[in-house]
Amino acid sequence: MTEAKFEKAFLKAVKKHTGIRKHIEAKVRQITEFPVELGEPLRGSLRGFYSCPVRGNFIIIYLYCTSCRKKGDAEFVACSDCSENADETVKFVLMGPHDEAYSTRIKI
Ligand SMILES: [Zn+2]
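Above: inputs. Below: predicted complex with zinc ion.
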């Protein structure tokens, strides 16, 4: 059973963009169910993270701890409490317009 966790930055962004809240909620449910299938693996400084489009140019950035571990990315990925999470943990990190989300320095 997959467990969803939400970072503060993600919750803040959801509050800010109430207009697409329903779309976000629906996507969060889908991602929690199919984190690997729906995610596009990111590279570079966001290695180990996944992104998934929500609506328009909005994307969600998240981590899936099973993937953190499989790829041996835990050392690179800023998944600070990875070892405390169950394998099946999806951590929702950020949400926002494509460019904004990618340019945000992710601190977890
Ligand atoms: Zn992790």
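Residues 66 and 87 are 5 Å apart (CA to CA).
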